[in-house]
Melibiose:sodium transporter MelB (Candidatus Salinicoccus stercoripullorum), 461 residues
Amino acid sequence: MEKQVTRVQKYSFGIGAFGKDLIVNLIGIYLMFYLTDVLGVSAAFVGTLYFVARIWDAINDPVMGFIVDKTRTRWGKFRPWILIGTLINSVATLILFTDFHLHGTALYAFVAVMYILWGMTYTIMDVPYWSWLPNLTNNPVEREEVSVIPRIFASLSNLLLGTLGFTIVYFFADHSGDGSLSSGFFIMTLIISIVFIFTTVITISNVKERPTNIGNGIELKLKDIWRILFTNKELLAYIGILVTFFLSTQIINSILIYYFNYVTESKGLFQLYNAMGFVEIIGLLMFPKVAKWLTREKVFPLAAISMVIGLLILLSAGYIAPQNAFFVIVGTAFIKIGSGFIMGIITVSIADVIDYSEVKFGQRNESVITSTQTFLMKTAMALSGLITGWGLSIFNYQPGEPQSDFTKVGIRIIMCVFPIIFVIGSYLIYRFSYNLKGAFLRDIVYILNNRKKERNVNDTN
């Protein structure tokens, strides 16, 4: 099939992921630490808040997908929401990282309200962004190439923020008027918000939005959301894969600061771990060729095994040589190469699920379906926050103090054991419940291509 996306469009679309994932990684990596160790909020409260906020998102995210699918403007249906969401979410993030010197109930209420608002405003731009991806091309080979590009930019943002985040915070804290970490976090957030807006403008300016064709002209109704989400067995399997994989990675992100600060007692190793994010980028770059050579079905178990090996290396090193950089490098390399491959698979697979929905129901409903990805990513952040927050409380974590052996064992379990369980679960769902692979997937593509040809003939006539 002929290529449908230019090089400029591919990379302009991908660069949008750089800015938006700077924002989401700021929340995923640093927010809990900021709230517990800078503002003094209880870890158990933060973990509970993360979880409770997702109850609202269970309604909010699919409805946003419905709104995007119903949007009709001369600028398209994706671009307006991406821009609006970026601007509003940037403001919400800045307020969330602003220290108003609140205490007690007022502080807890402020944190709760702003975190829920952050999640809602992030949904406004994230749902249309990922909904746009399947509409860039219906060429299966090109789709795999295009799909990994935003993931590469997202991994790059994770690498840079994880590696340089604390350096930036301490630099601005030292050069601000009050010398506090809260000032350092605010200035870093301001810089990230500006980058977020700039990269979004590049995306919506350079990428042409293709119209969405609804196969039989059926108009989407709000009541259809239930049918779309809960009668599509492939989507349900995909949801299982996504939530278990995201849980494994988000738990690591949530506990990482605490693990290296209090177990290995080395902030340098925290930066080293995040600097190894380039290996994930290598995995994403390799994914299209490796998937073509081995097929996605064989890549997934290899990637899951790689992540498990890496986590076991870190777990063992935590006892044998907790400050040994070599073990961190090797263990992290295994984790990142595996996560890079799996991220490639799940990014391509959402487009396959949308294609399957069109064949099965006669409607693509890409924004409603893609909203599950946004919701599940935030759900994984919430559950990982719940596990981390309550885990730290149960294991008697004391902010800013040397931790007991009991607490260190608990942090090790959260850091390594839980992610291993979840990544294995992700593979088992992919292996036994998800069917959009091999000949079945080729049949779906064949049916859609024939339908497209028929539409083109009818339009010509």
Notes: The first helix runs from residue 7 to 38.
